[in-house]
Amino acid sequence: MIAVGLGLAFINIGIDHFVNPSWYEPIVPSELPDARFWVHASGVFEVAFGILFIVPYTRAWASVGGAWMLVILYWANFNMWYNEIPLDGKTYDDIWHVLRFVIQIGLILIIAWTGQVTPFKGREKLHDQLDIFSGRITSSAFESGDRIVVGSWKESIFGEFTDIMWARPDGTRILIAPNKEVADYVTDMYSFDKVLIEDVNYIENGRSSEVACDSLKLEFSWNRGFPVPMRRSLLFISTIELFFAKLIFSTRTYGVTKNNRKEWYAIDRVSYLKNASANILGVDSGKFRPMTEPCKFGFSEAPKRPASCVVRTHIL
Fold this sequence. Notes:
Layout: H1 2-19, H2 21-24, H3 35-54, H4 59-82, H5 94-114, E1 131-142, E2 147-155, E3 161-167, E4 173-177, H6 180-189, E5 194-197, E6 201-204, E7 208-212, E8 216-222, E9 226-227, H7 234-237, H8 240-249, E10 254-256, E11 262-280, E12 283-284, E13 288-289, E14 307-315
Parallel strand pairs: 4-5
Antiparallel strand pairs: 1-2, 1-13, 1-14, 2-3, 3-4, 6-7, 7-8, 8-11, 9-11, 10-11, 11-12, 11-14
């Protein structure tokens, strides 16, 4: 019933854009020529998404489209706020615009929930077909030019293990894996120039960790960070979250691997590193620093700012 109500509300508002376009025209940003055209265009999308939202089969995709539409349409509301544009001869105070912004966010969350874009209801339909890895990914670059990404997996199809992706200053990409089974799985999906099979010892204590193998000795510590407050569906991760991850962290939460498998990164907590050290082949690598150069292991890069993230990786 909520979905039907939201769909009808979208349809009603969309029709009003045709019946009463002059009411909406003043808040159309001046960067867009022909305000009447954009009012009618937004009306078309509102009616279309309203209809698709009512139909259960198209509801999930309509909710994604509707969420993006509300993000884009807020440009008009912000334009009204920033330029103090009156409606019906009345200019509204800042508190009204703040409330309008909060309502817009609330609407986005409601349609995402109703369309099950975020999995408040049930588990993923593809759950039994997915390879799921739960653990922590820690990444940093160093003054030596080495870039290191450590994946410590507490739960996976291989049990508990740790692997290391290591990019040398000359661009050589090295995988350090605990056994050939893990190495074969990872190299099928990501690109490396060299593979080392070494025992990788990982110890985590509070907000710090130590990683040791024959080639590397690493130490990391991170701040409390911030949790991502709700579980998101794979659809949400591959659309809305993908956009913001790229915008804010310069990374990707969804992509296709070298062997054409789909992979989603569900981030549960983001913490930034307070300190990191690396001893590589017996030589200190200097201070830790941002990832200014890409590693080129696969479709996604580590965050530019050294970080340690609690993550669930889903591979189909």
